[in-house]
Predict the structure.
Amino acid sequence: MKSIKLTSEEFTNWLCDFSNYIHTIGYGNPNSYVKNVQDFLMYLESISIISLRSISQTHLLFYRQYLINRKHHLKQTPLADSSIRHHLISIKLFLDFLLDSRAITRLPGHLPSVNFATKTPREVLSIKEIHYLFRIAKDIRDKIILCCAYGCGLRRNEIFLLNRTDLHLTQSYLSVTLGKGNKSRLVPIANAILPYFKKYLRTPPLNESNQALLQSRKGVRLSYGQIYVRFMNLLKRANLPEIKQKHLTLHCLRHTIAVHLMDQGAGIEFVKDFLGHQSIDTTQLYAIHRKRRKQIERAFRC
């Protein structure tokens, strides 16, 4: 774990213990939970709270308001509702961990909720737009990110954790060993993207002792954030008006392949297994999106 900029030894030690715990249980991107808790502890230090047992309901309420007013460190815009929710979930996990570990004798109070706005539906790209992104991706690593997120429908954390040994190209599949909820699955690789993976693996990694599929120029595994930045930089180079008008994230590629599969007649059970959904209810959302989009297209043809 990286050095923590905390002055309280108690905070530092328990944050390290929480980091070990959260990595062990396999929650999504463990580092994001640790970073959120670190931000919370640094906030407490800024208001002269340096003991876990001094945390009160008032501090939780004030911190919620602090998150609502806080600006994103890069975009200088308010934090997204999902980001605030993730911060609060991280703190709840941390407080529950402290209680179970007997670092505190009781919870400081109920973690305050936030009235979130209606969730905006994820954008879907067309086949033309997907082909365009592949065409402007000059770095082979960017093409591999597109292959994983769109071609294989992987989550960003699943892409981050992929190793070269997870690719089984002669059998045309890759293995996800640590998916959401610590689940594993085998994902078929379509013939259209297989050549990109083969070309990539023919090039020896910069650091042969590191099995990470995506490596930086220094030979270390591309971080969770670096994968996101590479995709956003690719979007910035896109001159297609249809793409510029959309609010896209890397996860939109996963959403897009689900819709495209259903457009081609894939059954909902297949899409569920392909994406690694635990519940078919989640996959059903893609079917609803597809149905609504078809209705809109028919309306415009009238």
Observations:
- The first strand starts at residue 167 and ends at 168.
- The mean pLDDT is 83.
- Residues 9-100 form one domain.
